[in-house]
User: Which sequence fits this backbone?
C-alpha cells in the first residue's frame, strides 16, 4: 500500500513503451522497425530494450552453428518448417560475418526464405556481423530480445562459422546445435576450443555421405573423455537437410533440451528476486493518522504521501525515514480489515513489508512451497506497485506484505 514509481517508469520514454506494446500485440511492422533500431544502435534503442525486458522469457532460443558448407541454412529452413507445422511462430536471425554490417536485410535471405516469406508466422532477419556496434553478441542479444518481446515461440539464431563470435552467440541461446558434415577436413578435433563444449546437440548433416559414421564415432569418443556433469549428454542426430530426413528427431531432442535449460533458468530467475531484498516499510494500524503522526514528525520523519485506498477502506499516510518507511493505516469504516484489526488487537504493528525484485517469482515460490498466502494473486496497489500478503501462521505471527517492482 504505497505509491511507487519504478526506475523504469522514469527512464522509459512513452514512445519506447508504445513500441513495446505494439510488439507484444504481434505487430510485424513494429518488429521490423524495432530490429532495425537495435541493429543501428538508434536513439531510443536502450529505452526500447528496457521496455521489452519483461516480455522476453517466453521464446525458446535455438542456436545453429557449424563450419561454412555444413548445410546450416538448409537445415534451419527445415527446422523452421517443422516448428510451423507444430503451430509455433518463429523468428530467424542469420548472422553472417562475411558481409559488412548494413543495418538491413540482406538480399540473400529474401531469396532463401521465399517459401516462408508470405507466412506471417516466420520473421527472418540477416545481420552482417562486421561493423556491428558493441560486438556481434550484444547486437544479436538485442535483436533476439525484441523478437522475443513480439511473442515468437521460437527464435533460431544461425551463425556462419565456428569462431569466437559464434561461441559468444551460443551463450545467448537455450539450445545450441552444432552442425558437422563428413569429408570436409573439419575433423571434430580441429574445432575451435569452446565450440564442442558449447554444443547441446550434434547434428551430423549429409549423413548419407561416406564418412558420416566416422564423424558420429569421433563425437561419441570425445564425449567419453568429458565429465558430462551438466546432466545432459549432447545427443548425436543424423540429418539430411536437403530431404528433411532426421529433422523431426533433431527437433525432438532440441525441444527436450530447451525444456531442461528453461527450467534451470527459471530457478535462476527465482534466485534473482533477492537482488533488491530489503525492508520496505512497517504498517502501523492507528485510530487516527492526525493524532499518531505528531510523534513521528517530532522524530524528524515527514509524510511523503497520503491517500485513501477505497477498495481496502483505509486511509494511508507514508512517513519516510532514509530508505525505509512507516505506513500509518486508519480505517474509513469499522467494518474493514484495519477496523476489525483495531477492534480485536488495538493500535499497533499491523504488517511488515519486504521489497523483492521479482514479486511474481516470489509469489510462485512461496505458493509452491505451501506457504499460507492471504492474497489469492499478486495485486496492483496505489501507484501501480504490486504486492501480496502472507498469513501470520506462516511467518512467525507477523502479517508480511511482499512488495515488488511494478
Ligand atoms: Co503496506
Assistant:
Amino acid at each position: 500500500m504505497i505509491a511507487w514509481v519504478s526506475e523504469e517508469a522514469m527512464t522509459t520514454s512513452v514512445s519506447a513503451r508504445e513500441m513495446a506494446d505494439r510488439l507484444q500485440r504481434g505487430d510485424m511492422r513494429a518488429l521490423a522497425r524495432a530490429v532495425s533500431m537495435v541493429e543501428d544502435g538508434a536513439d531510443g534503442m536502450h529505452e526500447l530494450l528496457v521496455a521489452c525486458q519483461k516480455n522476453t522469457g517466453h521464446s525458446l532460443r535455438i542456436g545453429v552453428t557449424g563450419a561454412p558448407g555444413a548445410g546450416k541454412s538448409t537445415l534451419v529452413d527445415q527446422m523452421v518448417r517443422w516448428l510451423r507445422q507444430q503451430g509455433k511462430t518463429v523468428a530467424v536471425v542469420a548472422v553472417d560475418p562475411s558481409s559488412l554490417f548494413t543495418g538491413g536485410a540482406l538480399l540473400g535471405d529474401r531469396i532463401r526464405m521465399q517459401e516462408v516469406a508470405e507466412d506471417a508466422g516466420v520473421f527472418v532477419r540477416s545481420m552482417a556481423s562486421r561493423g556491428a556496434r558493441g560486438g556481434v553478441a550484444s547486437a544479436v542479444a538485442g535483436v533476439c530480445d525484441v523478437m522475443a518481446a513480439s511473442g515468437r515461440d521460437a527464435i533460431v539464431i544461425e551463425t556462419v562459422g565456428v569462431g569466437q563470435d559464434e561461441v559468444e552467440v551460443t551463450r545467448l541461446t537455450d539450445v545450441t546445435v552444432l552442425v558437422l558434415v563428413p569429408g570436409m577436413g573439419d575433423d571434430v578435433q580441429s574445432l575451435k576450443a569452446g565450440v564442442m563444449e558449447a554444443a547441446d546437440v550434434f547434428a551430423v548433416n549429409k549423413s548419407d555421405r561416406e564418412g558420416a559414421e566416422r564423424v558420429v564415432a569421433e563425437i561419441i569418443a570425445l564425449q567419453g573423455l568429458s565429465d558430462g556433469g551438466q546432466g545432459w549428454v549432447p545427443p548425436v542426430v543424423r540429418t539430411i537437410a536437403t530431404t528433411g530426413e532426421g529433422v523431426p528427431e533433431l527437433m525432438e531432442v532440441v525441444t527436450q533440451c530447451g525444456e531442461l535449460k528453461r527450467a534451470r533458468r527459471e530457478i535462476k530467475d527465482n534466485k534473482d528476486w533477492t537482488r533488491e531484498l530489503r525492508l520496505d516499510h512497517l504498517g502501523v494500524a492507528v485510530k487516527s493518522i492526525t493524532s499518531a503522526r505528531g510523534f513521528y514528525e517530532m522524530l524528524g520523519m515527514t509524510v511523503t504521501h497520503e491517500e485513501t485506498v477505497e477498495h481496502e477502506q483505509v486511509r494511508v499516510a507514508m512517513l519516510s525515514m532514509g530508505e525505509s518507511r512507516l505506513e500509518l493505516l486508519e480505517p474509513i469504516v469499522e467494518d474493514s480489515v484495519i477496523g476489525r484489526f483495531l477492534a480485536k488487537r488495538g493500535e499497533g504493528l499491523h504488517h511488515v513489508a519486504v521489497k523483492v525484485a521479482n514479486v511474481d517469482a516470489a509469489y510462485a515460490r512461496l505458493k509452491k512451497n505451501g506457504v499460507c498466502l492471504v492474497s489469492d494473486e499478486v495485486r496492483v496497489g496505489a501507484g501501480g506497485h504490486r504486492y501480496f500478503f502472507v498469513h501470520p501462521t506462516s511467518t512467525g505471527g507477523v502479517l508480511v506484505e511482499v512488495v515488488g517492482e511494478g
Observations:
- Residues 1, 281, 283, 327, 351, 353, 401 surround cobalt (II) ion (CB under 6 Å).
- The radius of gyration is 27 Å.
